[in-house]
Amino acid sequence: MFLQDLRAGVHVVCYVEKQTMKQGALQSDGEAERIFVRVGANVTLRCPDLPPGGGAQPPRHLTWWKEDRRLIEATRERVTVAPEAGPRVALVPGSSALIFRSVVAEDSGEYQCVVNNRQGRRGIVRLYVQGLRPHQEVLQDQFQTMKSSRTRFEPERPPGLGPNHN
């Protein structure tokens, strides 16, 4: 699995789950791909397990899903992007890679790349976006000096009695 992080200093860990369709049933090779990226970073997801040799040409038919929603469908003739994908998600021209620009927490989830060709492959990539949402306050470690004063409360005195009156 190829993962490209376009923002320096972002810690990305990935690991891949590859599945192959055989006679209508999914076969898994036991590996799983998980990608961790920070809010605001750019990241590219490659469709795992494309045909051996890297596939000089893009697949005949490729679909990227997020959970049960179709995001992008591509044939060699055209690419269709669902409105739900938004302007920050696109297919890298001439490839099966999905690129995210400035990821947000809502981009976290399971993405499936389904390649409809003779091999009939499906790759699953789980994207985890870490960090605070933009509207949350970022707290930094700070030392603060606090002053404390001692306060004494005295019972109310009737009018005309001073503080020295016993």
From TrEMBL:
InterPro entries: Ig-like_dom, Ig-like_dom_sf, Ig-like_fold, Ig_sub, Ig_sub2, Immunoglobulin_dom. SMART domains: IG (SM00409), IGc2 (SM00408). Residues 144-166 are annotated as: Disordered. PROSITE patterns: IG_LIKE. Signal peptide: none annotated. Residues 40-117 form the Ig-like domain. It comes from the Eukaryota. This is Ig-like domain-containing protein. The lineage of its organism: Eukaryota, Metazoa, Ecdysozoa, Arthropoda, Chelicerata.
